[in-house]
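Troubleshooting: if your tokenizer reports a length mismatch, compare against these two reference records.
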Amino acid sequence: MPPAVRRGVDAPSGTVCGVSESDRLRLSRTPLAALIATLVVLPVTHVARAAAVPAPTPAALGPFRAATHEALAQRYAVSRAGILAAEETASAHGDQWRATMLHAMADPTRRFLSFDGRDGGRAMEVFGDLATADRIAVVVPGADTNLDKYGILRGSSLRLSQALGQRSAVIAWLGYHTPSTVSAEALTTGRADAAVPHLRAFVRQLRAARPHARVTLLCHSYGGVVCARAASDMDVADIVLVSSAGTTFDNVAALRTKATVWAGRGSGDWIAYVPHARLRLPFATIGFGADPLSPRFGARLFEAGDGGHSDYLKAGSPSLRSIVAIVAGQAPAQVGRDA
């Protein structure tokens, strides 16, 4: 297993301790054994630090129902005030890194539908003109995405927005407490299940605000588990599983969605080495099951090139071209099912 895999899969914060001898014997019979053992013992200090930075309670915002320029401007202003208040709190706490990140986020040219700086942070940033967008991509990130690492999500969303061009919008949806990449929670559905009602509610509000727009969910790594488990109650055109280790479902039909389900993985992505299995243990069910790229899963496969785990929205990449085509409702370059 390559070094990147030994660092763990996309996952939640926290670790599973106290594994019994019988559990270890059961784990030894599956390829998940080495991965779980690693996740149990490795620390998650960065995630703990990110969640520990204090922030004030944000002003209450009602459901997002209107996408006029005036209504959006009001939401953006309220969110900006919340970011500035969080910056002041972080600075007083002595966390200059967080304060610097928040200062950049508070730039008047940036547009946040919502913001909450507590517990690692939640944020929904808009790229493009949402009030006039006919095509909307909602980017659902994977593990280890928080305010301290928000720049990665922002950069990817910005590049997608630029590639899509006019009459489109991209929403970076950091709407849940993501797991730590290095933790046993990386292999369980706990954080995904907690995120499901929030993603479903947001998509319903977005559909009400822009009823004629084509909406696509772009779900990266652990974000694919979130999207899959929410799929049965979301009105979207496409669900794009990017760098997904699995969804907990055996096939596309089990998602019970009318959306077209796509899957892609770069040849240089370490996620391919994560075992595709589900194992019931006394303390949790570990793993996400069928490979989304396998024939039996039944997703449509798009060309993802040779990029690594965080390269899917890299400028000029085959994966970015494929994703742009999907969001636009066009047929992307596809690959065979032996990928």
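Reference record two:
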Amino acid sequence: MVEATTTEIQEQLHKFRNDFTQLQSEIARAIVGSEDLINQCLIAICAGGHVLLEGVPGLGKTSLVTAISKALDLNFGRIQCTPDLMPADILGTHVVNEDENGRRSFIFEPGPVFHNILLVDEINRATPKTQSALLEAMQEGKVSAGSKTHQLPDPFFVLATQNPLDMEGTYPLPEAQVDRFIFKLLVSFPELDTLVSIAKQFTGYTSEQPDSVWNGDNLKQAQIMLSQIPVADPVTAYAAKLILATHPNNELANERVKRFVSYGASPRGLQSIIRAARVCCALREGTSVSANDVQKVAVASLRHRVILNFEGEAEAVNVDKIIDELINEIAAPGEES
């Protein structure tokens, strides 16, 4: 009986890895030279989290999100953020409806948030009031309008973009909002070979479009399977130590953290690491999360949750390097002396 259960688990893991690889291949047909970015976005989605993409305009962030929605066969909504965007433009609003008998009533007209995948372009151009309208949707999967609560489609993901260069007319995301994203991913400028490939592939009349590989039901089944992957107590403790080490007043913090960091990662950061590490474990067809799985996702999970102080900002300290240092300094399970 135990052997049959183990065999079934191995088959599920093998199928998940094959499906994930096929998803990557389909999306890569539409997005050239972004294999690592595609991989990290899919890990976040499989872990059930939202993604913040940071990069200058023109690097294909919107195209990436569109390709992901097509490959997953999920309906797709898009919001272009501007300073005059109102919460009702995202969530929806009540409008007057007149029936065939001339009776008037208020009905709720859903906004673009009622899609499986919502692309929020240049989220830092929206005002804090509008940014906060997404908080309940991202955390609870529902929207409150008036006295009623409306459930969002399941699955539901927000993939938001922000431009790190043009800061005029922008509103930096508050920490509470940023903390809702499981990953913050940096979209880098392509290399020469990639630029040449982009010019060849995407300057014609038509371009490659991904075929649907999964659907919402497949994704939810995968998420249930992933949630059942065990995490040993020493691995959980290791991930927790990484979180504590980002806090300058904790004994695990190194000198750079104490000097340059104002606030460390939240408990939600630990949850993000564990959920994403389970996906990495499944991709190698492992049966238990390892410290190496945790290390693979630590930077993407924590870079937006570690807040620099004034000195850190003035010296342009690289948060990614701080996290890498902590990964190297804190002994993983089995490495303790």
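Descriptive notes for reference record two:
- The chain has a mean pLDDT of 86.
- The chain is about 45% helix and 15% strand.
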